[in-house]
User: What shape does this take?
Amino acid sequence: MLAKCQRYIPLSAKCAGILFASFAWQTAFAEGPQSTPSIFAPASTPATSIYGLSLFVLAITGAIFVTVASMLAFVIFRFRQRGEDDTSEPPQVYGSTQVELAWTVIPVLIVVVLFLTTARMIFAIQDAPQPKSALDVTVVGHQYWWEFNYPKLGIHAVNELHVPLSSPESPKPTYLTLLSADVIHSFWVPQLAGKTDVIPNNINKMWIDPQHPGLYVGQCAQFCGVEHAKMLLRVYVDTPEDFAKWVKNQQQQAVSDETVAAGRHVFETQACMNCHTISGTAATGRFGPDLTHMMSRDTLASGAMANNKENLREWIRHPDTFKEGSLMPAMQLNDQQLDQVTAYLSTLR
Amino acid sequence: MADSTYPLPGSLETTPKRWSQAAVLEWLNSWVITVDHKKLGILYMLYSIFFLLVGGAEAIALRIQLFHPNLHIISPEVFNRLFTMHGTTMVFLVGMTYIFGFANYLIPLMIGARDMAFPRLNALSFWLTFFGGILLYYSFIGGGGLYGAGNAPDTMWWAYAPLTERAFSPGHAPDYWALSLIVTGFGTIGASVNVIATALCMRCKGMTLMRLPLLVWLNVVTSGLALITITPLTAAQVMLLIDRYFGGHFFDTQAGGSAVVWAHFFWIFGHPEVYVLVLPAFAIANEVIPVFSRKAIFGYPAMVSASVAIAFVSLGVWAHHMFTIGMSSAGNAFFVLSTELVGIPTGIKIFNWLATMWGGKIRFATPMLFCTAFVVQFLLAGLTGIMLSVAPWNWQLHSSYFVIAHFHYVLVGAIVFCIFGGIYYWYPKVTGRMLSEKLGKWHFWLFVSGFHVTFDTMHIPGLMGMPRSIYTYEANRGWGTLNMIVSIGGIIQAIAVLIFAVNLIWSYFKGKVAGNDPWDAWTLEWAIPSPPPVYNFATDPVVTSRRPLWDIKHPEDPDWKYE
Assistant: This one.
């Protein structure tokens, strides 16, 4: 029976898939240039398998709905009272054991099929053995931002996860170890895999093997405090060359530019350094994001805004402008200090 | 059975009251000190409807903020408080009280008793629940604590640890939340004990267990389930308070506590809770659908056993709320199976309702309209439930708008629809006047269309990756139009509920006089005057079948011949 179900998946993918997925896609692209993280546009094995399973389940539940709802519609139409004056009572029927048995046994069979298909998929995704070629990344959830550590590469990235492209010929999956520094978060990039909770004092694992290069967005999916909504996730799937280039850059020490020494001085003498790290300087704080290569990122504050000079200056001046309730305090710097720090940080490529 | 079993109206009535200050005070006092099951039932219902309006207003505020991406109408802090209060209110102050509203009012009438088994416990339970609710809302004022560090709770209605610990929630918000749930929980336990004792011990002559109206049966099952599930919730709240006040480390992850343990405690309460809320809604449908289809309920024994089976299986499915929490694959598979098993008795119920309507002469008065819509919507809610039970797919759908759409289909599409149906059905019994059918039809059609505009649409952003409990969303995600539609539907529903509120008040004064039995129904409560006298039945009734009034109305074809 299981084998039969498995053959059924691609078949149902063709019929039910066209109906449901196209609807979701149309709505997704109706509003101009988009990056919709639709679960019906998978780009990695776990997400693709789930997509196939979901079409199978949609086909079964859809068939049940059509059957029962049309019976109901028939009953409502056929057995409605016709004329107010018709007060005679219809024949009374109290039940039927055969009928009850029939509508117990059929659902039981459906449950058996669904359960076996589902269980197979759970084991296939959750217990997939980690190949030697896999990349390890440790994800640490913080209140409203993400930390990505690559233990074997010595990289501490923030908010924007870079992973290499994987393909069936040369598999290069990424295995994520999920930790939390404070409360429960959840790592969810719908096009790459289902979500897994990021729990303090508890280690969770998940894996992705993206098949198409590009940017995949997602966000924290477990309510984690005031700015849960702005704890966005960006996963960049790089070609092997791009990834190597990115790794090389991230492994460098921070740029040391004498023309912005004033800004560096402000950074090192104010409270900034208590929370942030910039390699090669006195700043070794771990509470906030590592800023060693902050200008290599496209966004600031976990995707809350684009990373440019104006936004950066405003973010330092008054973090609440973009992210009300963020844990970064406004340091009350004067205009000159703000300009100097912004200039300094802008050199950290 | 002689007609003298059912006393005529007015045989033992007191003299009518005059309106003066003393009389008004006495009237108010009579509601406060009452131990009469009917008055307590009405109090429970008024309380439930009041908080339905409050929780609904909170939902509208949330939907206005989400009308468009990146709006700043409501600040993130206030938004988080509002959705926490919306969830807590709807589940604990609306859901848990409507059950005992209907149960209190109807069970003694349906089983031919003069009151609940423990009238004073009944009053105590209501007032505990009442003050529990006030305690929760007092957090808006008192949650700040000495340093103004808190406010109303803002940790979601499931309050996952360690967000509720002192390190992340200073002030008193989680304290008010926990205390309020403990207090209302005690109220629920008292009321549940009372329902079970009443149904088992107060039945009139001839009312065997297999002749109990299904409403009574389902409320007994509900109460048993509530007794089991309130316990872990209360235990968890006490542990949370120990953590916060006595330096315990149950859920304090910074000191080696476990966040996962809270999740287990909460959901071993939280999932059966769904059935605690929905079984009394089924109970209402079980009474309304047969009467308006003019047929006996199809498969009474199957309905009873399906209800018991749902309650039993529901105790073993809690971790399907935790598929993403990192359980072992075998654990996940177990909870997939147990969850899908619930679908079988639930399916049996839907088929039995269908078979009850089959071959009937269905009268689509307002109560039946609501219950018919309920069957369709509950079918859909069950099917999205099956989708969510498929663990790998759940890894995608969990905590997304798809889940929100699913459980609102259950909580609104099934439960609230049945509550409305039930109120239209029994309002004549309670007040002696019919609710306006015209306003009722307006209420129904607006509500059903608003419901579908909102909650059908709401599934789609979930499939497109929109997580729940976010105060705003990015403009380029493609969720904007959908959220706008959802919000518009919410406003349509709000208008419908306001029409309902107007109908309740208007009909109380101007509605058509109902008489004893306006729906030509079959259970005992319709044998006595509307509103029923304080003593309910002047002489103890005797029943010979599940439909005592059918036997009286159709002496040539009584039910007891077939049971």
In short: Confidence is low (pLDDT under 50) at residues 1-5 of chain B. Chain B has one domain: 32-561. Residues 31 and 39 of chain B are 7 Å apart (CA to CA).
